[in-house]
Design goal:
single chain; alpha/beta; Rossmann fold; 7 strands
Length: 271
């Protein structure tokens, strides 16, 4: 299974620049949202060992945020695809970022000793697996390598979103080759908290982010169309619209509108 996953993501990576998935303003919004979330939930500057669980955005996307994290220590980052790791290292050079600890490995079978990291950032990594069992395995691995008292910041597809389609829709979407990459399963908020608790982590914070509907292809098309028609004149209006949608995070209904569940979990025990 690992070989198939790696082959899939290698193939996606090799053909990515031939695809038209560039959405600068959505990417900017995603990047800023992730940076806000991380800065509010963790002290990156004083973290000794940091792990990030995939490098797709760093390889290709303006929505990457890893290169903007300020820390005196180099960050360990992993991806199942050698091609993505190579591309991410190339991008890191342009930001003068140390990529010596970017590794090719599987998040479900991490090559690290237990209690290695005091901060783990996993942004929409675990929702690209074919089964819930894979997600649970990965969560247990992340819990294993996290130090006692350490923090896990996790984002994952929110199946409670009102526009989240049945999984058969995703299967059809992928079968018709309309999806740019494999879309996987996810866990409900309740199940996610249960698995984390069983893995020795307590959920300290939980919210929902990115309040626009599925599929995001429609949102991407709208951004590109409006920018093309306005030739940049509507960029600030689009930014204001995205900021306005962010206010839904303050509502009790946020888990019905947010595309991703975002949570902070702390491993029980003392470091």
């Amino acid at each position: 299974m690992l070989d198939k996953e790696a082959e899939h993501w290698d193939k996606v990576a090799k053909g990515w620049f031939q695809k038209s998935y560039a959405n600068e303003l959505l990417a900017e919004h995603k990047k800023n949202t992730c940076l806000r979330l991380i800065s509010g939930w963790a002290d990156v500057a004083h973290s000794q060992m940091i792990l990030k669980t995939d490098l797709f955005a760093e390889a290709f996307g303006p929505e990457q945020f890893l290169f903007n994290l300020t820390t005196p220590n180099s960050i360990v980052a992993i991806d199942v695809s050698k091609e993505i790791v190579t591309q991410a290292k190339g991008q890191a050079q342009q930001y003068s970022v140390d990529s010596s600890k970017y590794l090719c490995c599987d998040v479900k079978h991490l090559p690290f000793r237990s209690n290695s990291f005091d901060l783990i950032i996993s942004d929409s990594t675990l929702d690209h697996f074919p089964s819930e069992t894979d997600i649970i395995t990965a969560l247990k691995e992340l819990g294993r390598v996290l130090q006692a008292g350490g923090t896990l910041i996790l984002t994952i597809d929110n199946k409670g979103n009102l526009t989240y389609p049945p999984f058969m829709f995703f299967r059809l979407w992928m079968k018709l080759k309309l999806a740019p990459y494999f879309i996987g399963r996810t866990l409900s908020r309740t199940k996610l908290q249960q698995v984390l608790n069983e893995s020795g982590l307590d959920v300290a914070e939980c919210t929902a982010i990115f309040h626009y509907p599925h599929p995001d292809g429609l949102v991407r098309w709208l951004e590109r169309s409006i920018r093309r028609l306005g030739r940049g004149r509507f960029d600030n209006a689009i930014r204001r619209g995205l900021t306005l949608l962010d206010k839904l995070e303050t509502k009790r209904s946020k888990y019905l509108t947010g595309r991703y569940i975002a949570l902070k979990a702390v491993k029980r025990g003392t470091s």
